[in-house]
Amino acid sequence: MASRSTAPEKRPGFFSQIRSLYTFTKSEFRWLPFGLIGALLIGVGLGVLIGFLIPPVQIWSIILWGVSGLLFGLLFAMILLTRLSTRVMYKKLDGMPGAVGHVLSTGLGRRWVTSDMPVGVNPRTQDAVYRAVGRGGVVIVGEGSRGRLKRLVEDERKKVARVASGVNVEVFYVGHEEGDVPIARLAKTIKALPKTVDRATLAAVVKRIDSVSKSVTSLPIPKGIDPMRARAQRPR
Predict the structure, then answer these.
(1) 117 and 217 in contact (C-beta within 8 Å)?
(2) What confidence score (pLDDT) does residue 236 get?
(3) What sign does the CA torsion over 112, 101, 232, 13 have?
(4) pLDDT tens digits, residue range 128-149?
(5) How many Å apart are CA 121 and CA 97, to the nearest integer?
(6) Strand pairing report for 169-174 and 120-121
(7) Residues with Cβ < 8 Å from 171, sequence gap 6 or more?
(8) Calpha distance 36→28 (Å, rounded)
(9) Is the pLDDT score of 226 beyond 70?
């Protein structure tokens, strides 16, 4: 019998991640190569210009400033690539079942308690309700048709009210209709909520809500969006 390999899975290298990120982003922004080259040239140009403006003007000084400008150009190019790739990721996630769970579990940070699994779901339509708990209170997010979500949202609101009386509860619907929050702005909208819950109260609220939460892992809804299918890995 062949023995199983115990070697850890090899992670993609730095340049491999850059290449994947570039390919992923270029699929939506065809002008990306020109933008990245432009960022490099602007950086080098600014560096050389500073070298000429700062006395004494010497060739070695111009070269050093040019190299510094190249490094800043690389930084600008990476920032441009990262921001554009984020826009592409949200565009691909928009409208996909489980997109809200992915954004909540990866976009809010450690200060919010979330999950990529919904706390309420309609198995037939895949309309789902997600929950996030943090210093801004309890946030209920509906994914799907607002009309079909009303009952699921109200059930979750009542459940939270029973165990977290006095805690602020916010409800958001993800979509493009009037009053909806676009998926690209969901994390920012939740983070912008005023902090109304202190740390001690937050820990108690999380514990009480978890105690009454029901598992929906057996329901036929995607567990979440696979980040590898939604975007390329960012370089580390």
Answers:
(1) yes
(2) 46
(3) positive
(4) 999 999 999 999 999 998 888 9
(5) 11
(6) unpaired
(7) 139, 140, 141, 142, 153, 157
(8) 15
(9) no
Q: Do the Cβ atoms of 51 and 57 come closer than 8 Å?
A: yes
- Hunting for tokens 């990306």 — which residue is that? 32
Cα 95 to Cα 98: distance, rounded to the nearest angstrom? 9
- Residues of the chain with pLDDT > 70, as a percent, come to 85
Helices H / strands E in the chain, number of each? 8, 4
Cα atoms in the 13 Å half-sphere on the side-chain side of 37: 4
The pLDDT value recorded for residue 115 is: 84
Burial class (CB in 10 A: 0-12, 13-18, 19+), 227: middle
Q: How far apart, in whole angstroms, are the C-alpha atoms of residue 215 and residue 23?
A: 38
- 228, exposed or middle or buried, with CB in 10 Å at 0-12, 13-18, 19+? exposed
Q: Which of left, alpha, beta for 166 (phi over 0: left; psi -120 to 50: alpha)?
A: left
| Straight-line distance from the first to the last Cα atom of the chain, in angstroms, rounded to the nearest whole number | 38
pLDDT tens string 20-54? 999 999 999 999 999 999 999 999 999 999 999 98
